[in-house]
User: Which sequence fits this backbone?
C-alpha cells in the first residue's frame, strides 16, 4: 500500500510533469523498475518537491540549471515544460538559460536554448 508521502509525490509529479507523462511512466511499472518509481514518487516528489522552503518555480529553475550542467537533454525538456506549468515566465527562463551559459558553458547553453525554443514553438501551435 503506497504511503501518504508517495501519494502526495505522485500528485505533485503529475502537476509538474503532466498527467499523460506520469500515467505512461506508471503504466510501465514492472518488477524491475517498481522500486525506482517508488523512490521517485516518495522521496524526489513527495519528500523534496513537497517541502515548503522553495517555490515550485524556484525548484524548476534549479532543475534546469542542474540538468543543463549534467547534459541531460531529455530531462531538461521535460522539466522545461514543467517550469512553464509552474508559472515560470519567459524572462525567468531566459535569465536562467543565460546563467547556464556563464556557469555551465556555451555548449550547454546552446543545447538549452535549442530545446527551449522547440518546446515554446510546440506550446504555441494550435
Assistant:
Amino acid at each position: 500500500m503506497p504511503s501518504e508521502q508517495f501519494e502526495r509525490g505522485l500528485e505533485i509529479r503529475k502537476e509538474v510533469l503532466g498527467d499523460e507523462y506520469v500515467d505512461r511512466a506508471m503504466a510501465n511499472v514492472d518488477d524491475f523498475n517498481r522500486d525506482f518509481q517508488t523512490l521517485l514518487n516518495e522521496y524526489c516528489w513527495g519528500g523534496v518537491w513537497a517541502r515548503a522552503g522553495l517555490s515550485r518555480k524556484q525548484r524548476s529553475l534549479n532543475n534546469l540549471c542542474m540538468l543543463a550542467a549534467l547534459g541531460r537533454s531529455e530531462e531538461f525538456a521535460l522539466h522545461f515544460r514543467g517550469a512553464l506549468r509552474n508559472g515560470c515566465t519567459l524572462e525567468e527562463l531566459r535569465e536562467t538559460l543565460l546563467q547556464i551559459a556563464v556557469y555551465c558553458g556555451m555548449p550547454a547553453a546552446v543545447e538549452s536554448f535549442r530545446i527551449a525554443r522547440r518546446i515554446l514553438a510546440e506550446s504555441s501551435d494550435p
Observations:
- Helices lie at 4-17, 19-27, 34-49, 56-70, 73-85, 90-104, 106-124.
